Amino acid sequence: MKQVKTVSDLERIKSKYLQNQSENEDNGTVEIKIGMSTCGIASGAVEIMSVMSEECEFQAIDAIVKQTGCLGYCYAEPMVEVKLPGAKPKVFGYVDKKRAREIIEKYIIRGETVDGEIEVSYQTIKD
Description:
By secondary structure, the chain is an alpha+beta fold. It has helices at about 5-25, 40, 45-60, 95-110; strands at about 30-35, 65-70, 80-85, 90, 115-120. The protein has a single domain, classed as Glutaredoxin (3-Layer(aba) Sandwich).
């Protein structure tokens, strides 16, 4: 990755990021982020990322499964944030292999509520 040296460099990166987000939203792609900070990794997040990637592929779900840093709720690791097209992100805590599959089956595929959602206390800045 190129080094950011100026404000205009940062603005270009932001613009590209927002464009990618918009494209994912437009084409119906589900975005799944796995909290992979130190506490997440220690709690089993690497395994959860693998399970969710494999399950999405098996279920033929158009999803981007990626790692992210700290989600801010270390007590609830491993954590998963799911962003369905046109919906606000939902964060799930204490995710094990069984819950990972439940999140995919119930929330992503059928749109049902899944226990263990953590109330999101942040907003995404888009401008």
